[in-house]
TrEMBL record:
Coiled coil: none
Keywords linked to the UniProt accession: ATP-binding, Ligase, Magnesium, Metal-binding, Nucleotide-binding
Stored Pfam families: 5-FTHF_cyc-lig
Protein known as: 5-formyltetrahydrofolate cyclo-ligase
Substrates-to-products reaction catalysed: (6S)-5-formyl-5,6,7,8-tetrahydrofolate + ATP = (6R)-5,10-methenyltetrahydrofolate + ADP + phosphate
GO annotation, biological process: folic acid-containing compound biosynthetic process; tetrahydrofolate interconversion
Family from the record: Belongs to the 5-formyltetrahydrofolate cyclo-ligase family.
tRNA-binding in keyword set: no
Cofactor: Mg(2+)
Organism: Zunongwangia atlantica 22II14-10F7
Length: 187
């Protein structure tokens, strides 16, 4: 299947998930994340889930990061430049949903992408080579291309890996790991 077909397939699979399943799977993903040796960094980029898209609930991962006293960085979409601007999450950070229902910081302390050590990457599907399919706008590939070369990229998925994608582009940046409720994939 190509990316367009896979997007459609995985959006339908997510739509079929109940609220209870999303919560259970998200907790299992967070617990599997604890098996990784990725806790030496200082700055951790975490997307805030779009509930309407039935994304992995990252609240559990947020609690882990806060418990480990990590600096949590959250993105805001820069539509004009097709990019992400990253802000430090603090007690005073105001969050507001944008036009796509993405919860985003209104403003705050901007963190350069070069400072980020680990990125949790949203996705619809991934393959056994670490390639991911997002919503198709390229925000994360563009953002990841501005990060330091040794940044750790971790995808989060309710579903297991596809064998391989047909249409991988040179601008697609592969993951280092993908965490599902059942296992940890290393690439």
């Amino acid at each position: 299947m190509n990316k367009t077909e896979l997007r459609k397939k995985y959006k339908a699979l997510r739509t079929a998930l109940s609220t209870e399943a999303i919560e259970e799977f998200s907790l299992e993903i967070a617990n599997n994340l604890l098996k990784l040796d990725v806790w030496e960094g200082d700055f951790y980029h975490l997307f805030l889930s779009i509930a309407e898209q039935k994304e992995v609930d990252t609240e559990f991962i947020l609690h882990i990061l806060q418990g480990k006293d990590k600096n949590v960085v959250i993105p805001r979409t820069d539509i004009e430049h097709n990019n992400l601007i990253n802000y430090l999450l603090t007690e005073t950070t105001k969050i507001k949903k944008n036009r796509w229902n993405i919860p985003e910081p209104v403003d705050g302390i901007e963190i350069p992408s070069e400072k980020i050590d680990v990125v949790f990457v949203p996705l619809l599907a991934f393959d056994k080579n670490g390639h991911r399919i997002g919503y198709g706008k390229g925000y994360y590939d563009k953002f990841l291309s501005t990060c330091k070369p040794d940044i750790i990229k971790i995808g989060l998925s309710f579903f297991e890996a596809e064998e391989a994608f047909e249409d991988v582009y040179t601008s697609d940046i592969p993951l280092d790991y993908c965490i599902t409720p059942k296992q940890v994939y290393r690439f």
